[in-house]
Specification:
about 200 residues; alpha/beta; 8-stranded mixed beta sheet; two-stranded antiparallel sheet; 10 strands; globular
């Protein structure tokens, strides 16, 4: 699980755009800016250069030691404090209820085994006026592509570190009790079964 958690009591995060497919280029970028001071949880490390220096603190949830190792050099370049938080045995994020302003998830929800638990935890730690920003790939809105996503999903899970091709991200987020206030679907360059995107904002 990889999440960025940011506290921004005065302003939302603006998620702008994605350049190219994360699957095929390291130049892929998600631009995120915090206008005012903030504490934030983040997933991944690649987003770090695009956060505002006004962040008070950033928490990152990533149980993979390799992910932490890869993020180390990026962390050294930011001016705000970054803290890794370890998931507890039951999958709970060790942060208090209603304690963070924003959670950012990028290319993460496809791989989590117990996704309903993860989304519950995100909802739990978000403040009542907090926001959940997500950018994920998932089930296509084209029936012929969905068919191939379902066929290839067992293979993809084995070769892709548990990645699922056929999760309908907006429905899963809504089923977890979130209200999606902004959502955009689009297709990135690359194989169609991999590149149908969900970009949006949800509130608890």
């Amino acid at each position: 699980i990889r999440f960025f958690i940011v506290n921004t009591p005065h302003a939302p995060i603006n998620m702008l755009d994605v350049c190219q497919s994360v699957f095929f280029t390291l130049q892929n970028k998600v631009f995120i800016s915090c206008v005012y001071t903030a504490r934030l949880p983040e997933t991944g490390g690649l987003n770090l250069p695009f956060y505002s220096n006004n962040i008070l603190k950033l928490y990152t949830v990533d149980p993979a030691l390799l992910g932490r190792k890869l993020a180390k050099k990026r962390i050294e370049k930011v001016v705000f404090p970054v803290e890794f938080v370890d998931l507890q045995a039951d999958g709970q994020i060790p942060l208090a209820d209603c304690s963070v302003d924003n959670v950012v998830s990028t290319w993460t929800l496809c791989t989590i085994d117990n996704l309903s638990k993860a989304l519950f935890e995100i909802k739990r730690i978000l403040k009542k006026n907090g926001r959940f920003y997500f950018l994920e790939h998932g089930l296509s809105d084209k029936q012929n592509i969905c068919k191939w996503q379902n066929r290839f999903n067992p293979i993809q899970k084995k070769i892709g570190g548990g990645c699922n091709l056929n999760r309908k991200i907006d429905r899963l987020i809504s089923d977890a009790g979130f209200k999606i206030v902004e959502m955009e679907n689009f297709d990135m360059k690359g194989p169609k079964i991999l590149t149908h995107m969900y970009k949006g904002i949800a509130i608890p």
